[in-house]
Amino acid sequence: MAKLLRVVFWGSLSISLWLASGLANAEKADKNKPIHxxxxxxxxxxxxxxxxxxxxxxxxxxxxxxxAAEITVREDSKGNQFGVAKAAPGKxxxxxxxxxxxxxxxxxxxxxxxxxxxxxxxxxxxxxxxxRLRGAQLADEAIGAVIQYDNTTDVFTVDGxxxxxxxxxxxxxxxxxxxxxxxxxxxxxxxxxxxxxxTPLVVTPALKERP
Length: 211
What we know:
Elements: E1 5-9, E2 14-18, E3 36-38, E4 41-45, E5 50-61, E6 64-75, E7 81-86, E8 93-98, E9 104-110, E10 112-116, E11 121-134, E12 137-150, E13 155-159, E14 175-179, H1 185-191
Antiparallel strand pairs: 1-14, 2-13, 3-5, 4-5, 5-6, 6-7, 6-8, 7-10, 8-9, 9-11, 10-11, 11-12, 12-13, 12-14
């Protein structure tokens, strides 16, 4: 039975974690796919090559899906695309992308989501949360003030934000990370007979706050 690991980082920490060794990167073809956007309204500045979509905005780019109240898209002279998604008051913007070669997805939420098509990263700010799902099963989860995920290296960084005074409400500048190890399906099938139903995983209680 796979063990569940919950880690709570205190203070204004900034950490960098490999999602898991040997796993595929995010869908590489997404970077060169066209952007499709639906919204209630659009304002386009041809000179600056900036489009501002407002009202129930849904953006798709390959396997990437972004939902927000407002999304600003800019394109530079080299054709690189950049986006900033903002949530409606009291809500969070949403991001989802498939990982290449495996049935896994990266999901994230935040009041603001930034996407950099040139360097291929996504950043979640203010009440930020990012999850990795294996199929429909939650595998990893990170919570902080700012989370940045690099699609090219599969590295994400999480900042609690206390040192910059950006800690999320009730967070006290803490970074919370929950990680589950990847199961060796071959080894588990050889070692375990196919008769009893395994006991469901139990989430470890959150650590008590320091005095």
